[in-house]
Amino acid sequence: MERKVGIIGAGISGLLACKYALAKGYQPLVFESRNTIGGVWTKTLETTKLQTPKSFFQFSDFPWPSFVDTLYPSQTQVFDYLQSYAKHFDLLKHIRFNTNVLNIKYHKGPSHEENNPPHWGGDHNGDPFGNKGKWIITTQHLLTQIIEVTQVDFVVLCLGRFSDVANIPEFPIDQGPEVFEGKVMHSIEYSNLDNEKARELIKGKRVTVVGFKKTVLDIAMECATVNGVKYPCTMICRTPHWNVYQSIPWANMFLNRFSEFLIHKPGDGPLLNFLATLLSPLRWGIGKYVENDIKKKHSLKKIGMVPNHSFLQAMNSCLVVTAPEGFYDNVDKGSIILKRSPTFTFHKEGVLLCDDSDYGTTKPIKSDLVIFATGFKGDQKLKDIFASTNFQKCFSSSSNETTPLYRECIHPRIPQLAVIGFSESFANLFASEIRCRWLFELLDGKFKLPNIQEMEKDVLIWKKSMKTFSPKYYGRPCIGALHIWYNDRLCKD
């Protein structure tokens, strides 16, 4: 019997899930709130490019067209590539566009007693459909406002972490955006503007952007390009990160099997652990060399932006960001001004930095426009999709806790459901593809999962390892430290 698979999201992970579902004979139903595919690549800043070479961002069975000869394709080129992939495998007819998923609810199968919570592989036999339950997906069409209910046998959540639910800091009463006489927006609003409208918005204005990751760097560069030193863009940074240019060659030192050989990996025997301990000074030394190289090339000490965490921790937590070409040149020229402060408040003329050294004495940074590039609440979006509070409690919204997913795909306590694309990698497209292949081989009965207790034990071991790899940012879902080893585990399964 043909089983229905509900896929929520038509970004990279959703397209891959749809393609592999079709390959295994399932009937995919993809729900997408936008009017097109592409996820975060649907609408980005004009200057946005791939952060990794295109060979790291390529479907295994659909190479880039030969006319895309740049190493780091632009947003438009990436979007066209995804469109071509969807058309080539005839995926569009399976996607319901402009359809927002209000919630999903699990209906227990007849094999479960009323007081027995459903778990993966009913009766612990490892069968993904062993519970004989169904998922009820409630959706609303955004144009017609019609609400529909769809029943499926399996759900794949491809929601992504970097869209939709904006993360905006909270402020004390009378110290927030309400006292500011200018305009305040989140980067998601800015990204949704047409390129021409975005340029008009920032032209001739004193712009302040908040954050220090990829989006804020791109916005600051656009402001610098449009306004130059006459109206410099101010960046407020709470936590500096290791932001580097794409052309720096040493990144490959951390993206190979030898570099992972120097790390203590979950499940390694005494000999491998001994060798990792013996050779760990080599990895530390390489990391220090890279840190010194970055600090020297970008004058981080001079501009006061040396991170407090090591470069190795940043790599292990997927926190190394590629800066746009010319970013630090604009800092030197003065068209981008960097300010470091743990917090800030609003003033009617702009923002006040809350630096402990001179708090209360600083003058406001006069601004016409303040843009928050402070990220998104991906964990919250994942929790809110469930109608059941019990399932919501399975996901932590704390930044200090990892999302408890076996193989970064399966929650042991939620049956007939997988999460794809939530955990980062240095090659996100490839990570999503191999996860989708793994998932649909599982659904096809090619292998079985261990019991719930063993899966939860595996999750705890991975969590413990992340604390070792990156004690400050271990709560971020990331396989950066061991992405090759992780892929090997999926292949072995």
From TrEMBL:
UniProt superkingdom: Eukaryota
EC number: 1.-.-.-
This protein's UniProt keywords: FAD, Flavoprotein, Monooxygenase, NADP, Oxidoreductase
PROSITE patterns: PROKAR_LIPOPROTEIN
Example GO molecular function: monooxygenase activity
Signal peptide span: none
Cofactor dependency: FAD
Coiled coil: none
Family note: Belongs to the FMO family.
PANTHER family xref list: DIMETHYLANILINE MONOOXYGENASE
Name of the molecule in the record: Flavin-containing monooxygenase
Gene behind this protein: LOC110779140
